[in-house]
What does this fold into?
Amino acid sequence: MDDVFEWKDDFVTGNQQIDNEHKQLFQQVNELYDMFSDTKKYHKQISEKVINLKTVLIKHLYEENELFEKYNISEKEAHLKAHDEIIKTINDLENYNLSSLIVALLLCDVIINYFLEHFPKYDKKYIPELNEKMSIKH
Ligand SMILES: [Fe+2]
Ligand SMILES: [Fe+2]
It folds into this structure.
């Protein structure tokens, strides 16, 4: 099956670690979307995938946070705050009595928004500075 969400060259930052994690997020959202084609059949896998996807996303955001701190990236405060909001949105999904399918769809939405809105606004901007600082420090 074709991917619903297509990876674009625009998403490449040139930072290997970050690119790999972003690609992994993309791949997992697509895998989750494929399972929506038969929610009865894939019911269990969808729940498992949601747990996994949440873990991958939160881990990624914390890794970015650590990089901002380690390399003292400028304007990191706004980016950290944006990450906090995403993490809160994800954690909040558990506070409502939503069906697992709705949670899965909302999670996909959070990740797609990450690439369409958060990525160009934040990620794309700090990467050149990060890459430069990383190459100096290594
Ligand atoms: Fe990111
Ligand atoms: Fe980010």
In short: Residues 100-137 form the longest helix (38 residues).
